[in-house]
Amino acid sequence: xxxxxxxxxxxxxxxxxxxxxxxxxxxxxxxxxxxxxxxxxxxxxxxxxxxxxxxxxxxxxxxxxxxxxxxxxxxxxxxxxxxxxxxxxxxxxxxxxxxxxxxxxxxxxxxxxxxxxxxxxxxxxxxxxxxxxxxxxxxxxxxxxxxxxxxxxxxxxxxxxxxxxxxxxxxxx
Length: 173
Description:
The protein is 69% helix and 0% strand.
């Protein structure tokens, strides 16, 4: 699908830099990632935008990854008033109090070990699946975990970029 047949992508491509930069910051809090995506506009297809996102994600330093992670709340505690955070973590919404308490404990242990929030592409995952993932990943080395986080951020970015160009399309309709 070309940008001509995707009005949302065309709108993103044509938006002022400051508007596009703000939208990209909502997708990913890494300023390095956002700058790389912004610098490569216009995108002919959504797939080209995804490929640019993946390439930019692969180039992020440890500091850039930390900046990106800082934009994500802990699993089980979405940012109040943030519909994106609530939507992405909906698998925890119906979790039992015991599971929520266990996730809080696991999140704290993970954060103590790695120095950042447990990050996972939570979209479509149940609370139990997220709990099992943090239990497994807490055994990783910091280096292993940094690469897993990079992959998970890439998945999140693709979902959010899709919403960005779809929302831009809906708003122009």
